[in-house]
Amino acid sequence: MKTELSSTFGSDYHRILLDAMPSAVLVVEEDVRIVDFNIAAQKFVGKEHAVVLQRRAGDLLHCLHSSETPGGCGHSKACRECPIRNSVDAALKGQTPPRQTVKLELIAPGRKPAEALFMLTVAPLTFEERRLALVILEDIREITMLRQMLPICAHCKQVRDDANYWQSVESYLELNLDIDFTHSLCPHCAEQFFPEYLREFEKQD
Predict the structure, then answer these.
(1) Which residues pair with 152 in a beta bridge?
(2) Which tens digits make up the pLDDT trace of 119-128?
(3) Residue 72 Ramachandran class (φ > 0 left, ψ -120 to 50 alpha, else beta)
(4) Cα distance between residue 23 and residue 136, in whole Å
(5) How many CB atoms lie within 10 A of CB 92?
(6) Total domains in the fold of the chain
């Protein structure tokens, strides 16, 4: 015999569980319209349920692109590439999108645009035959800042990774941040190591 959660824990169990989650959680439906949210999400969308519910997430998160058109969230050209919107669309079709790091450009009223970095998780959810999506936004700015504090050799400038392995700065950034490098010379090094090439280059100018 199946035991319902509501009979085991009480009817407020889902509310308590949602609010206990430390990350911002939005429950959304089609067009990323919010139908519920937890306490952690209040700092992004506000506290008043009457104001928040049925509004689109991009409008309440103050996404920069939502202010580009009168229609708001979902109507800018950039919205076609929105990772939150696309993940929600996939979830509403019954798929489970992969977790991903997303960078959002937010602009609160009266403030300058600012970048926010989140780990985005979106999962399909069915409640009373209503197809919904659970959107979890984990703020990872602090983690990213800590990772940016790299142990670097004062002499050879190699970087030590988490496995205590020393490697060049280029190798570390290529492996961890997917950055490709193209090499050049600053004027100081060009003058010090390749003065004849520098003079030839200056003649060509």
Answers:
(1) 159
(2) 999 999 998 8
(3) left
(4) 7
(5) 19
(6) 2
Range of the domain at 161: 150-204
How is residue 122 annotated by DSSP?
E
120, 87 Cβ separation under 8 angstroms: yes
8 A C-beta contact, residue 76 and residue 66: yes
What whole-number distance in Å separates Cα of residue 27 and Cα of residue 194? 61
Are 69 and 76 a contacting pair, CB within 8 Å? yes
At 24, list the tokens: 């911002």
Q: Which of residues 144, 164, 196 is at a domain's end?
A: 144
Q: Kindly state the tokens that stand for 50.
A: 């009457």
Q: What pLDDT, in 10s, does the model give residues 22-42?
A: 999 999 999 999 999 999 999
pTM for this predicted structure: 0.66
- Other CB atoms within a 10 A radius of the CB of residue 75 amount to 14
Amino acid making up residue 22: P
Name the DSSP class of 4.
Answer: P
Query: d(Cα 134, Cα 72) in Å, to the nearest integer?
Result: 22
CB of 18 closer than 8 Å to CB of 25: yes
SS3 per-residue string spanning 74-102: CCCHHHHHCHHHHHHHHHHCCCCCCCEEE
Q: Do 107 and 170 belong together in one domain? A: no
- Is the domain of 161 the same as that of 95? no
